[in-house]
């Protein structure tokens, strides 16, 4: 079997806070004016990615992992996670603020939902003037303080907000209270989990005139009430893999590609490239495949040598 770079049909999600930038900025095939998310690579139940190119076109990611677990996932990943794909890749368009939310850690998520927790990172691809995110508390807090402010609708006053620009990266460990602000397009890398506790939704109502469900009680023992440092500084050496995030769940490098790089891999893990700017090609086995901004490509672990070529900014993701 000849393994090759895999692309997938985007799984598009309407959201109350979504817009049209996934089409205008990233050229996704959206038809709705409130599309908030493009799930690029997923094995979440009910939302499993389907291959869009090559000999396996039409097969699901789950199908090929079941058939070739070591070759797709990598030996180390298969040993650690079995035949589960452990990460979820998305692009998000926030026309409005997302709800303020928190994700449980592995222990809580396993106990309550039989799921992974949800450690995640954001790469800011596009930011309107004065766009910001909400991350953590301004000062050390506690459950009583938090509930009192929630009751008085003053919760925003105790949460930290950060003005952001294109290229900024934020790493959010489980328990960090957070929200993506209006006017942002974000690349998101996270554990495979769709468990979110919604804490505050700005008193919004949906198309039917209803407010969205909050999960305040579930969140109380999931929240980290300490002040957290979430923004990641990183180098941008051209044609090198510059480490941005290195955690037990994933490693993300930033590659400013200008020309060609020969890549050699060990076979221990798959690799995913998200193109956040520009265009590039992957050359392997005398073939060339072309990619543009907003594309996401999965390199099976069995593809241990290939060439990246072009002028682009890439996020390179694998499991160490």
What is the gist of this entry?
The protein is built from 7 helices and 19 strands.
Describe the fold and architecture.
By secondary structure, the chain is mainly β. It has helices at residues 21-24, 61-67, 69-73, 75-81, 106-113, 143-151, 216-219; strands at 11-19, 35-41, 43-44, 47-48, 87-94, 100-102, 120-127, 132-137, 159-163, 169-172, 178-180, 184-191, 197-200, 242-246, 251-264, 271-284, 287-292, 296-299, 305-318. The two termini are 25 Å apart. The relative contact order is 0.19. The model has no long low-confidence stretch (mean pLDDT 95).
What is the overall shape?
A: globular
Number of E strands: 19
Largest β sheet strand count, sense and barrel closure:
6 strands, antiparallel
Alpha plus pi helix count: 7
Structural class by secondary-structure content: mainly beta
Fraction in beta strands: 35-45%
Distance between the termini: 25 Å
Helix content: 10-25%
Q: H/E series, N to C?
A: EHEEEHHHEEHEEHEEEEEHEEEEEE
Strand order of the largest sheet: 1-2-5-12-7-10
Give me the Rg, rounded. Answer: 20 Å
Poorly predicted runs are: none
Kindly state the mean pLDDT as a whole number?
Answer: 95
Structural features:
320 residues; mainly beta; six-stranded antiparallel β-sheet; 7 helices
In terms of topology, how is this protein built?
Blueprint: E1 11-19, H1 21-24, E2 35-41, E3 43-44, E4 47-48, H2 61-67, H3 69-73, H4 75-81, E5 87-94, E6 100-102, H5 106-113, E7 120-127, E8 132-137, H6 143-151, E9 159-163, E10 169-172, E11 178-180, E12 184-191, E13 197-200, H7 216-219, E14 242-246, E15 251-264, E16 271-284, E17 287-292, E18 296-299, E19 305-318
Antiparallel strand pairs: 1-2, 2-5, 3-4, 5-12, 6-13, 7-10, 7-12, 8-9, 8-11, 14-15, 15-19, 16-17, 16-18, 16-19
């Amino acid at each position: 079997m000849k393994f090759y770079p895999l692309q997938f049909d985007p799984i598009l999600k309407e959201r109350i806070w979504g817009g049209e930038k996934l089409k205008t900025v990233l050229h996704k095939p959206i038809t709705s004016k409130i599309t908030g998310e493009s799930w690029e690579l997923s094995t979440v139940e009910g939302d499993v990615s389907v291959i869009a190119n090559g000999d396996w076109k039409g097969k699901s990611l789950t199908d090929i992992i079941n058939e070739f677990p070591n070759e797709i996932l990598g030996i180390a990943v298969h040993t650690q996670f079995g035949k589960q794909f452990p990460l979820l890749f998305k692009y998000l368009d926030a026309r409005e603020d997302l709800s303020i939310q928190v994700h449980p850690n592995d222990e809580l998520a396993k106990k309550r939902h039989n799921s992974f927790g949800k450690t995640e990172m954001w790469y800011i691809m596009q930011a309107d003037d004065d766009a910001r995110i909400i991350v953590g508390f301004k000062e050390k807090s506690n459950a009583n303080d938090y509930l009192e402010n929630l009751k008085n609708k003053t919760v925003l006053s105790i949460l930290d907000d950060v003005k952001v620009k294109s290229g900024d990266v934020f790493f959010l460990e489980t328990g960090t209270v957070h929200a993506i602000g209006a006017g942002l397009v974000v690349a998101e890398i996270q554990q495979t989990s769709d468990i979110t506790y919604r804490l505050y939704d700005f008193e919004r109502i949906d198309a039917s005139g209803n407010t969205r469900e909050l999960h305040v009680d579930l969140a109380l023992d999931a929240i980290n009430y300490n002040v957290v440092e979430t923004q990641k500084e990183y180098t941008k050496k051209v044609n090198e893999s510059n480490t941005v995030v290195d955690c037990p769940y994933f490693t993300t490098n930033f590659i400013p590609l200008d020309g060609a790089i020969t890549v050699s891999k060990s076979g221990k893990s798959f690799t995913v490239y998200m193109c956040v700017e520009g265009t590039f090609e992957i050359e392997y086995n005398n073939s060339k495949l072309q990619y543009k901004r907003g594309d996401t490509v999965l390199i099976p672990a069995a593809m241990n040598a290939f060439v990246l070529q072009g002028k682009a900014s890439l996020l390179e993701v694998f499991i160490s």
